[in-house]
Amino acid sequence: MNYDVSWLPAAEKELASIWLDSSVRQPVTEAAKRIDELLARAPREQGESRYGDIRILFVRPLGTLFRVDPSTRRVEVIAVWQVRAS
After folding, report:
1. Residues sharing a CB contact under 8 Å with residue 49, sequence separation 6 or more, in sequence order
2. Which of 20, 22, 45, 64 is deepest in the core (most CB within 10 A)?
3. pLDDT of residue 86
4. What gap in Å lies between CA 4 and CA 31, rounded to an integer?
5. What's the mean per-residue pLDDT of the chain?
6. Is the peptide bond before 61 cis (omega within 30 degrees of 0)?
7. Distance CA 86, CA 83 (A)
8. Domains (ranges, CATH) in the chain?
9. Residue 12 to residue 62: CA distance in whole angstroms
């Protein structure tokens, strides 16, 4: 059974800003889609634990913070940022 994934408004706004500011938008689109897929399928197996119920996940070129509620099978993406190549 899948989890319901939602993005907080601030995270959605930041994702839109990243996408609009990007000279190559396809990788951003693909990363956001992959994040949704991974979190819907098995969110507690993705990324690394941070503090409390917060986890961090990188799907380049994006980094995300998210929260999992197993009792309601919901995932909230609470922050997203662009990961620059080093």
Report:
1. 55
2. 64
3. 64
4. 18
5. 95
6. yes
7. 9
8. 4-82 (3.30.2310.20)
9. 13
